[in-house]
Amino acid sequence: MLFALRFDFRNPDLAGTSMADRYSAALDMAEWADQLGCVTIAVSEHHTSPDGYLPSPIPMLAAMAARTKNVRFMVAALIAPFYDPLRLAEDMIVLDNISKGRVDLVLGAGYVREEFDMFGVPMNERAKRVTETVRTLKAAFSGESFEYRGRTVRVTPAPYRPGGPSLVLGGSSEAAARRAARIADGFIPSLPEVWDFYRDEVQKLGRPDPGPSPIRANTVVALAEDVEDGWKQMSPYFLHETNAYGEWQAQSNLASPYHTSPGADQLRASGQYRVLTPEQLVIEQKESSFPFVQFHPMCGGIPPETAWSSLRLFEREVLPKFA
Q: Which distant-in-sequence residues (6+ apart) come within 8 Å of 51 by Cβ?
């Protein structure tokens, strides 16, 4: 059975956890996951969030890479319009060397107005800045000199991985999907249905059909010995996550897998957030043609000790059933 982890480091007041302890727990979880064969650890990026959402994914992944040997890492997504492309290229090359080629980069255009105000970036420049960032990174990762804003530059040192980290675009619109087909190495849609635009554009460009969407519906799964107790413990944090995302995306009228919810009962009924016993997860995964689960262990600010309880149940009572 394959599994993955993701972190965004929301830390609302209701969690009663210091950010330093949350960061420390995530590093321990990354090391634990690596030893158990985790395939991917993803971190996300947002800015000026009241709950401390991770603003700097590259140093976080550098710390995780130093504690692990095999697991791959993904920034999903890095908000390209807020970065100087050359400095980003240098930072990514250093991270690529620290991790020995285990990093993939998903670039997003961003959508939260407060973030663009913070950095003084016009929202109508998003597409232009994403395109420039992708082209600059590809040129920089080649190790050769290239033209950048009217001057010749060369970024050193060379990446560990020939050609550098893969560059994938994320997004929830037709424009983002078609842009990914034209300039990037791939596309990760926020919603599975947006994939069809990417698939269409890839074929229009004369490349092979990439097939159906590799992205499943966005769900969060956590484990507990007693489902009702687990839901009671974790639902305040699930609510915090979906409502925080929902408020951001409502501002921009953006298609999104997240929506504001009036309460825990309604959220539970939606099925987007689920608390299962280990036995229930085993039964589900045994029936799947591709046993896989992604955990968001500290989702919405879940305290580290509660997150560890879920992960340890997975280690003790789920993984051995798939040995």
A: 10, 11, 12, 240, 244, 301
Structure tokens at 245: 């995302």
Are 240 and 10 in contact, with CB atoms under 8 Å apart? Answer: yes
Place of tokens 């395939």: 39
pLDDT at residue number 318: 98
Could you give the CA distance from residue 240 to residue 260 in angstroms, rounded to a whole number?
Answer: 9
Task: Check if the beta carbon of residue 79 is closer than 8 Å to that of residue 109.
Answer: yes
Q: Which of 5, 77, 9 is nearest to 39 (CA)?
A: 5
Q: Is the entire prediction scored with pTM above 0.90? A: yes
Instruction: Please list the alpha-helical segments (H only) found in the chain.
Output: 19-35, 57-66, 85-99, 113-119, 126-141, 174-183, 195-204, 227-251, 264-270, 278-286, 304-313
- For 145, the 3-state DSSP assignment is coil
Predicted pLDDT of residue 317: 98
Pair 105, 78: CB distance under 8 Å: yes
Contact 95, 58 (CB under 8 A): yes
Q: Please tell me the predicted confidence (pLDDT) of residue 251.
A: 77
Per-residue confidence (pLDDT) for residue 254, from 0 to 100: 66
Closest by Cα among 38, 23, 50, 45 to 91:
45
DSSP state, 13? G
Q: At what angle do helices 195-204 and 174-183 cross, to 10 degrees?
A: 40
pLDDT at position 217 is 75
Strands 146-148 and 151-153, by their bridges, are antiparallel
Question: Which portions of the chain are predicted below pLDDT 70?
Answer: 253-257
CA distances from 74 to 7, 138, 191, 268 (A): 11, 17, 18, 29
**Distances from the Cα of 140 to the Cα of 18, 91, 104, 290, angstroms:** 38, 11, 15, 37
Q: 195: Cβ–Cβ under 8 A, 6 or more apart, which residues?
A: 177, 187, 189, 212, 213, 214, 215
How far apart are alpha carbons 315 and 297 in whole angstroms? 13
Determine if the peptide bond prior to 80 is cis (ω within 30°): no
